[in-house]
Amino acid sequence: NPIESFMNDSQDPSLQEDVLTRDGIDSVLALLEEISYDELETDEAYMDYSHPDRKFTKELEDRKFYRVRGDQLHYKVVGKYTIRNFIVKDGYFDAYKGCPAPDFTQYWLVDKKVLYMMLDLILELDELGHNKYGFKIRTQHRHPTKNTAIHGASYSQHQFGRAIDIKVLDVDKNGEENQADKTIIYDLLLKIVGDKGGIGRYPGGMNLHFDCR
Q: Using one digit for the tens of pLDDT, what is the confidence trace for 51-80?
């Protein structure tokens, strides 16, 4: 079991294989410390920075956040993609990049159902002979401060950890990135997400959104 081997090797990110099962996702998440929204609120500096008006207290009060420390940021959590790809890109993230101390703390909110959706997308692409990593993650978690800064929708599912935005790359491996590649992923997401969430197509570009709202 690659996850068990990774855990037995002091959880060194460089030894971890790609995560290609739901059990694998669960195993990686289990390595992280979970904290409640109430516990998060005790970090007043972080809350004043990330949730300054506490407007989503009701929506978040039953959610679990992950405390990500040091190199845990580089754990693969779905396929080849690491927590670094999913975590909010804010001042805390920038501070870690400047001084990646082992005990540096960041907070991550994610609904694992959206990770399962992404895993299904990877597996479906691979099954069809396409580039299973024919996309990059643009954004996943955004706390209210970050969401406001980029002019996101006021009730964006990214604020609740339920959404992923991707940029489509060369999915069909023909050397080009075009709307045909985007259509392949969009059609797969229609099947994978179904009535369990939402999809955003962003016409004219190469970006797609999916969520497990």
A: 999 989 999 999 999 999 988 999 999 999
pLDDT digits (tens, 9 = 90+) for 97-147: 877 777 789 999 999 999 999 999 999 999 999 999 999 999 999 999 999
pTM of the model as a whole: 0.94
Could you tell me if 181 and 171 are in contact, meaning their C-beta atoms sit under 8 angstroms apart? Answer: yes
Q: Where are the beta strands (DSSP E) in the chain?
A: 33-36, 64-69, 76-78, 81-82, 105-108, 135-139, 163-168, 198-200, 207-211
Backbone angle region of 113, left / alpha / beta, with phi > 0 → left and psi within -120 to 50 → alpha: alpha
For 93, the token pair is: 């993230």
The answer to whether 107 and 49 have CB atoms below 8 angstroms apart is no
Both tokens assigned to 183: 């259509």
DSSP 60-79: HTT-EEEEEEGGGGG-EEEB
Question: Residue for token digits 């959706």?
Answer: 117
